[in-house]
Amino acid sequence: AQSVAQPEDQVNVAEGNPLTVKCTYSVSGNPYLFWYVQYPNRGLQFLLKYITGDNLVKGSYGFEAEFNKSQTSFHLKKPSALVSDSALYFCAVRGRTTSGTYKYIFGTGTRLKVLA
Amino acid sequence: DGGITQSPKYLFRKEGQNVTLSCEQNLNHDAMYWYRQDPGQGLRLIYYSQIVNDFQKGDIAEGYSVSREKKESFPLTVTSAQKNPTAFYLCASSTTSGRLNEQFFGPGTRLTVL
């Protein structure tokens, strides 16, 4: 079965410290992986994606993510957290349905709280 | 929120009423999606459409209906058969080919049943 797991409901980090938000996935075939961020009462905003190529992907607002095929993980990272990074983060994978169409499977989200 | 509009932003429904949520995109995307978001449950797929005049049920389609008569529009109707419709509803779109395959999301509609 295709799935995405975000094992932490909430991550707290002090401003200026590095942050990691974890994501593991299960999908048949080559994974297309995504990270999105959501601010209160807003839609999701795309941060970055992994399709192929370098395992370290750089995205918006200084975020990056590391694809690890052997561990089936795609953790989101940032070297120095800002208070404004506080939001809800979603990991997603694009999978194929039995009819051959594509759909996106989302994790349950991780709330990041950056403390001043 | 990148070329996708949803209306209304807030919607109140009495029990037994059908309501329709609007989603329009000007990104020329073939695929469109409807998700429901509840606290602690992430996004759950209701319906999706890869092409005009065609759509498929997602994981929680019961009590919902959609149409895709135009490429730009993918309205969602929440029927009286949906027992617990209070939630935040998100519409998204994406291409179906090439490398630009991330989804673009609208700002959402918060539906409350009175």
Features:
heterodimer, A: 116 residues, mainly beta, six-stranded mixed sheet, 12 strands, 54% strand, globular, B: 114 residues, seven-stranded mixed sheet, four-stranded antiparallel sheet, 0% helix, 51% strand
Question: Your description of this structure?
Answer:
The complex is a heterodimer of chains A (116) and B (114). Chain A has strands spanning 3-5, 10-14, 19-21, 24-26, 32-38, 44-50, 56-58, 64-68, 73-78, 87-96, 102-106, 110-115. With 116 residues, chain A is mainly β. In chain A, the strands form 3 sheets. In chain A, strands 2, 5, 6, 10, 11 and 12 form a 6-stranded mixed β-sheet that branches. Chain A has a 4-stranded antiparallel β-sheet with strand order 3-9-8-7, with no helix packed on it. Chain A starts with a strand and ends with a strand. Chain B contains no helices and 11 strands. In chain B, strands 2, 4, 5, 6, 9, 10 and 11 form a 7-stranded mixed β-sheet that branches. At the A-B interface, strand 5, strand 6, strand 10 and strand 11 of A face strand 4, strand 5, strand 9 and strand 10 of B.
Secondary-structure map with pairings?
The complex is a heterodimer of chains A (116) and B (114).
Chain A lengths: L2 E3 L4 E5 L4 E3 L2 E3 L5 E7 L5 E7 L5 E3 L5 E5 L4 E6 L8 E10 L5 E5 L3 E6 L1
Parallel strand pairs in A: 2-12
Antiparallel strand pairs in A: 1-4, 3-9, 5-6, 5-10, 7-8, 8-9, 10-11, 10-12
Chain B lengths: L3 E4 L2 E4 L5 E7 L5 E8 L3 E10 L2 E4 L6 E3 L9 E3 L8 E8 L9 E2 L3 E5 L1
Parallel strand pairs in B: 2-11
Antiparallel strand pairs in B: 1-3, 3-8, 4-5, 4-9, 5-6, 7-8, 9-10, 9-11
Q: How many helix segments of chain A?
A: 0
Strand content of chain B: over 45%
Report the count of strand segments of chain B: 11
**Low-pLDDT residue spans of chain A:** none
The radius of gyration computed from the alpha-carbon positions of chain B, rounded to a whole number of angstroms, is 13 Å
